[in-house]
Amino acid sequence: MAVNHTPRALRSEVVLNDRYIIQEMIGAGGFGITYRGFDKIENHECAIKEYFPIDWGTRKEGTLDIKTKDHPRVMEAYEHGKSVFINEARILVGLEHEAAVVNAFDYFEANNTAYIVMEYIKGTNLSKLVKEQGVLNTDAANLMLQEMADALYRIHKKMLLHRDISPDNIIVSDDGDFKLIDFGATRAYAINEPQTMSVMVKPGFAPIEQYMKAGMHGPWSDIYALAATYYYVLTRKKIPAAPDREMGAEVEQLKELVPDISDRINTGIMRALSRSYKDRPQTMKEFVRELGLNRRITTTSLGKQAFTAKPRLRLKGGDGPNDLEWQIPERGIRIGRDSKKSDICLADQQISGLHAEIVYDRNDNVFLIYNRSKTNPVYIGQVELGPLMCTKVASGESFSLRVNDGSYEFRVEVR
Asked: What span, in angstroms and rounded, lies between the C-alpha atoms of 369 and 378?
């Protein structure tokens, strides 16, 4: 959705790099502007992020060029920030197969600045979703947290920190995918470099080290922000800003606000929200392990049961009188209309691109049924499982995806 146009933004119909047509501005911040664009060569929509730090430069009147303020220190900062922006682009292009991260597929320099071209995601960020539809249930929040943590673990191994994780920067696509956007590489420079630069934080999500120009930034910083995001989507409450916490403001226990949360998750989240980075988990893998949310269970930890218990999914009457059947892998199995997103593809326009996901939890011997669609329900018997919700069912139970002329009936079982 477009936002109000800012005077410094590029106008519609501007062509960049002889390929990308600007259609409208969709976001603007202190370090850049994001546009909805169109790729003439690939013939599809895209998102274009322009490096444009508002404190360091202006648009030359009547041109596309950005002019920096005539001060050596500002010019140096601008060029360094641009190099960090381009480095971010290189890393994002290298993450093109990371499902939970917005894909970037091109970047270039022009108009005395730089641009990143990314996939255009139709969806809603978690902040807006919670405000409009209410808090997520715990299973949906757990799924969001694990998908973000899995992606961030691999990103951290590439020596890139996000530094701006919040409900604003996690989008739920119309197909039900969680996508992490707006990597804050240029903001890292603003935090760590000269005193003339601004510290960029989001109160309630940024840890105390991000308020300091020489703070100890690391994976633990993103862990704090992800934990604060999880807290928000379950409660619709921000924790106190980090400086207020240093002055004595307390964070209410998550379990006090969400009584059905497990003690283990409550303890893990509260530890991740520790004021000192030394008291938090130091890696995303450690964080997820402490919460007990890792659904990718290895067979070596399960003994003989891992080889004898085979979770299966059956589509009733899927082939004339016979059922179609699939074994559910440890990562789960996805059902939808889009073959790129789904393991089981249903050629029906009334089915969402990614509609449902089924994961078998060996520890509790139950199936988790996730509705990954933002528009279409999943039915457990006659009970409607709404968008982005999750429920548990036992072996032998069924769920369905309904269309105008009938339904697709699935049964889960272990045998």
From this structure: 9
Q: What is the pLDDT of residues 97-111, one digit of tens each?
A: 777 888 888 999 999
Report the SS3 class of residue 357: strand
Coil, helix or strand for 61?
A: coil
Q: β-strand 57-59 against 123-125: which pairing, if any? A: unpaired
Q: How far apart are CA 152 and CA 32, in angstroms?
A: 22
Give the bridge partners for 391, in sequence order. 369
What are the tokens at 187?
A: 């903001």
CA–CA separation, 341 vs 412, rounded Å? 21
What digits encode the pLDDT tens for the residues 280-318? 999 998 999 899 875 432 222 222 232 234 788 888 754
Return d(Cα 261, Cα 413) in angstroms, integer.
27
Pairing assessment for the beta strands 333-336 and 344-345 based on DSSP bridges: parallel
User: C-alpha 137: how far from its chain's center?
Assistant: 17
134-191 tens-digit pLDDT: 898 888 898 899 989 988 988 887 777 888 899 999 998 877 788 998 775 434 434 3
C-beta of residue 251 within 8 angstroms of C-beta of residue 270: yes
Residues 6 or more apart whose Cβ sits within 8 Å of residue 223: 272, 280, 281, 284, 287
Residue 45 main-chain phi, psi, to 5 deg: -70, 155
Q: What is the 3-state secondary structure (H, E, C) of 149-172?
A: HHHHHHHHHCCCCCCCCCHHHEEE
Calculated CA dihedral for residues 135, 139, 143, 146, nearest 10 degrees: 100
Do you know the residue count of the chain?
415
The token pair that represents 118 in the structure block: 């990314």
Name the E strands within 134-289: 170-173, 178-180
pTM, whole model, 2 decimals?
A: 0.67
Query: How many Å apart are CA 330 and CA 297, to the nearest integer?
Result: 7
CA nearest 51: which of 107, 96, 7? Answer: 107
Query: What does the pLDDT read at residue 347?
Result: 84
**Separation CA 295–CA 142 (nearest Å):** 11
Cα maximum dimension of the chain: 78
DSSP one-letter code for 107: E
